[in-house]
Amino acid sequence: MAIEDRMYDFSVRIAEIVRYLKENDSGFPLCDKLLDCVISAGIFIRKDNYQEAADNLQQISYILEMAVKSGYLTERQSQPILSDCHELLTAVTDAKQ
Fold first, then answer.
1. How far apart are CA 76 and CA 80, in angstroms?
2. Helix, strand or coil for residue 58?
3. Residue 78, by phi and psi: left (phi above 0), alpha (psi -120 to 50) or beta?
4. Which of 40, 54, 82, 95 has the most C-beta neighbours closer than 10 Å?
5. How far is CA 8 from CA 60, 66, 74, 77, 85, in A?
6. Each residue of 3-20: pLDDT tens digit?
7. DSSP at 2
């Protein structure tokens, strides 16, 4: 699967996580930032700007880790999406070289 398609699928999954987090009674305060980062990463990949896409993917990973550490997501909930994020980051890093 092309990196652009993988990024799009990942973006949809992040949007679903954001919806879940916003529906939660306590509402994760970084939901909008998470969504902004994934949209930016996807746009940068479409523009072949892999450095900026990688920077956004690193931010996504960091925000997801914060969601786990602060109790908004469980380790089990976050593991598949974090794994996908790290795989995408590797693919983007390899593509920019």
1. 8
2. helix
3. alpha
4. 54
5. 14, 23, 24, 20, 12
6. 999 999 999 999 999 998
7. -
**pTM greater than the 0.90 cutoff:** yes
Q: What is the mean pLDDT of the chain?
A: 93
Residue partners of 83: CB distance under 8 A and separation at least 6: none
25 confidence band (pLDDT: 50, 70, 90): low
Q: Please, what's the b/e burial string for 34-70 (b: 16 or more CB within 10 A of its CB; e: otherwise)?
A: bbebbebbbebbeeebbebbbbbbebbbebbeebbee
- Structure tokens, 31: 């939901």
Q: What amino acid is encoded at 51 in this protein?
A: Q
